[in-house]
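Fig. S4 source data, part A: sequence.
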Amino acid sequence: MTLTNRYPSLANKVVFITGGGSGIGATLVAAFVAQGAKVAFVDILQQESQALVQQLMQQYPQGKVHFYPCDITDIPALQAVIADVEVALGPVTVLLNNAASDTRHDFQDVTPEYWDQRLNVNLRHQFFAIQAVFAQMKAAGGGSIINFGSMSWYESQGGMPGYTTSKAAVLGLTRGLARDLGPYQIRVNTLTPGWVMTERQLSQWVTPETAKDIEKNQCLKQQLLPEDIAAMALFLASDDSKLCTAQNFIVDGGWI
């Protein structure tokens, strides 16, 4: 990463990240470890997650990073991990609801069961993670919650209605809970990435044609990288953004 800004307020904060084993999530984990935070993350990708922990411990010998295998659609398991993190590291004061799956699907083939599964993996866990960390943040005197959205529904992207519907709903989740949690000095914001060049996107969706489309639509003609998303996440987690809540912060190179 080429991130250079330092946020002293992030040192020793307990940060919980969903979907931290690969892609944007792995960059988020690395970025917060580099800031001196105590980072816990969950993922179903155990091999990749364990390799990430080993890499970061070599890079930051004094760093604190903990991986908990967890399927975020299993709400009791997610709640149990969040409780375990408090015991092991202290109260969570930064939550990044990053986990999601943008697997393409034809709306004509969607069954009620598949629809529920798409909402469970892209939306439901965000609410229940917030519910689970609330008491910890309240006891700590406040916190920052960052819900991850998507620019896909803004630009009327088709081919994955379960994903785009879930991500549109994230904004409602953010704004409503920002009101409910504000009295406890808990901030809730949405971070909306553009088309980020992760390994998954490059291997599955980005073709020469789509790359041209991305360049055409972005005002800034540069590839959007995971570290660009992490840069905004660090700011929103830090005390520097202490009066930012109920907002949607878009990092997409000027597409939408």
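Fig. S4 source data, part B ends here. The helical segments are 23-34, 46-59, 75-89, 112-140, 161-181, 199-204, 208-217, 226-237.
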